[in-house]
Amino acid sequence: MKTLVIALCITGGLALSACTTPEQRASAAAAQRNADEAECTTLGFQPETEAFADCLLRLREIRSENAKTRALNNARRDPFWPWYRSRYRYPYRYW
Q1: Geometric angle at alpha carbon 24, from 69 and 45, rounded to 5°
Q2: What SS3 state is found at 49?
Q3: pLDDT, tens digit, for every residue of 18-64?
Q4: How far apart are CA 52 and CA 55, in angstroms?
Q5: Which of 32, 35, 31, 55 shows the shortest CA–CA distance to 43?
Q6: CA distance 37 to 29
Q7: pTM above 0.85, yes or no
């Protein structure tokens, strides 16, 4: 019983530590927007032009593609890899 309570407390703490408030999400989005605007400005695009908007859109698309690739790689990864080898080792010599 004591183990169950401790496990629930740890799980609840981890679940709540991943939560963010809407203000935190908005500030992160604003910081990302400012970084994108600075990047497009350093690339030579003038603010409030169509080329500047295309630059912002392209940066957002690149970030989205990177997130999608990261998610696919995480889904493809074997979750039991570190423990699989030592536990189920081939018992006989190869040569």
Answers
A1: 60
A2: coil
A3: 677 889 989 999 999 999 999 999 999 999 999 999 999 999 999 99
A4: 5
A5: 55
A6: 12
A7: no
Burial 59-90 (b: 16+ CB within 10 A, else e): beeeeeeeeeeeeeeeeeeeeeeeeeeeeeee
Measured in residues, the chain has a length of 95
The helix (run of H) or strand (run of E) holding residue 20 is none
Query: Contact, 17 vs 24, CB < 8 A?
Result: no
Question: Distances from the Cα of 78 to the Cαs of 15, 61, 73, 86, in angstroms?
Answer: 23, 28, 10, 15
